[in-house]
Specification:
about 10% strand; three-stranded antiparallel β-sheet; about 450 residues; D-Maltodextrin-Binding Protein, domain 2
């Protein structure tokens, strides 16, 4: 179907999609975006067999360099397609959605996207709309999906008809990453198993935070930022913010989140930094912070990158371990999906299969980039070969730690409203934790903000 034929249909369906999920996107594996790069090549449509149209250029959109770098593994496998691909790095995750939304409403645009990248924070805005195609339309089968972690499929499923609309080459389960030397010094802990016993519940976690503060003589805090706990709570909601009937729900896990942050603030159990700030990034290289809630990419590109060294004996390199923490969770990830006006479905399927389902390609990609890929067979092969043993973690096998955690991730609570509603909640959590509001007032103000942001939602 020519893109111009889609215009009337898509302009209607986009309205619903844009109502669900807007705002700033959360940090992912790549936190620093390069300068904006825009595609200048023009799509020239040429007749294809059966009266359809094809294009010279095949456009793939994302907000940074990460996906573009991973696509090199696809080009290595299929060099004949490399010249057709136009990778458009918008260069700024805060304007990425705006750019893509504009293009999706103009199917005749010469730089209309064929494949687009999604973050978990707003993926449902696109998958729950007619702007994206089921992967079955691209020739992707259940057999292709067999090695993926289930939660990555649930996230990308259109909740209207249960069709799968996107695939991810990553899996991002989370853990608690802590300093082994400080654990032994202040807690007498010498193994991840002992550490887990000290942080296996939120009550135990807070008790251990108090112990670290006391025994360090106020020199060390359990966490850097009060907000560092948020992902562990979001991933353990029991219901979505807004159900299929359009009714808002304040989950008990979010009420507990408010109370935990309040304790962290009032008892001075963190360094009270702001996540991603200069002070926060300095934590891994000092003895002021005991640990972080971090996922697969966070381990390599946040903790290790800020540890003050590049080999054992330098900075805090080698002085870290991982344990699950109070609850399983995930943080981030990038998905790839085809647009409704995709000019070449066969090519889209080939790219997505290679990047997200091909065990051989994904094994190589993981070994060379340290990505924890969304392929159980690939990760088992690497772990069995000893590739997960990580000198940064004192030899601990990060693959064997993350694998069961990835299996336990539950995303049944996700909705297309998450990005905006989460931001509205955090505003009130800060007010409550600082003592500017009592809990009831903060919750009431949160609900009012949700009702104002989404007038069609029933908020009681």
């Amino acid at each position: 179907m020519k893109k111009r034929v889609l215009s009337a249909l898509l302009s209607l369906t986009m309205v619903a999609g844009l109502l669900a999920g807007c705002g700033q996107s959360a940090p992912t594996a790549t936190t620093e975006a390069p300068a904006e790069e825009k595609a200048e090549a023009v799509k020239e449509e040429v007749p294809a067999e059966g009266g359809e149209t094809s294009t010279d250029k095949f456009y793939i959109y994302s907000w940074n360099t990460e996906l573009g770098e991973r696509l090199q593994y696809v080009y290595d496998a299929y060099p004949e397609i490399a010249d057709r691909i136009e990778y458009v790095n918008v260069g700024d995750d805060s304007v990425y959605q705006e750019k893509v939304d504009q293009l999706l409403q103009t199917p005749d645009a010469p730089d209309y996207p064929d494949l687009i990248a999604f973050e978990a924070a707003y993926i449902m805005k696109y998958t729950n709309s007619d702007y994206t195609l089921p992967v079955t339309d691209l020739g992707i089968t259940d057999e292709d999906l067999a090695q993926m972690y289930p939660y990555t499929l649930t996230i990308a499923t259109d909740q209207r008809d249960n069709s799968l609309k996107g695939l991810s080459w990553q899996s991002c389960p989370g853990s608690f990453i802590y300093r082994t030397d400080l654990a032994e010094k202040y807690l007498g802990v010498t193994s991840p198993e002992e550490m887990q016993a000290k942080i296996g519940t939120w009550e135990a976690f807070l008790d251990t935070a108090r112990e670290i503060k006391e025994k360090s003589g106020d020199a060390t805090r359990m966490l850097s930022s009060n907000g560092d706990v948020v992902n562990a709570f979001l991933s353990n909601k029991t219901q979505p913010w807004v159900d299929k009937e359009g009714v808002f729900h304040m989950d008990d896990a979010m009420l507990e989140y408010m109370d935990i942050v309040k304790v962290l603030e009032t008892e001075d159990l963190t360094q009270k930094t702001t996540q991603w700030s200069e002070e926060w990034n300095a934590g891994p290289s000092s003895d002021s912070v005991f640990g972080y809630f971090g996922c697969t990419w966070f381990l390599h590109w946040t903790i290790k990158a800020n540890c003050g060294g590049e080999a054992v004996g330098e900075g805090t390199y080698g002085l870290w371990n991982m344990a699950q923490g109070p609850a399983p969770y995930y943080w981030g990830g990038t998905w790839l999906g085809a647009t409704a006006g995709c000019s070449d479905k066969e090519l889209a399927g080939k790219i997505m299969k290679a990047l997200c389902t091909d065990t051989e390609i994904m094994t190589k990609m993981s070994e060379e980039t340290l990505d924890y890929v969304n392929n159980k067979a690939a990760m088992k092969t690497l772990s069995d070969a000893g590739k997960g043993s990580y000198d940064f973690l004192g030899g601990q096998d990060f693959i064997s730690i993350f694998s069961p955690l990835a299996e336990d991730v539950d995303v049944s609570w996700m909705s297309a409203y998450d990005q905006k509603v989460n931001a509205l909640l955090d505003t009130q959590v800060i007010e409550y934790s600082l003592g500017n509001k009592d809990k009831d007032t903060a919750v009431a103000d949160f609900k009012t903000a949700v009702a104002e942001a989404y007038p069609a939602v029933t908020v009681e």
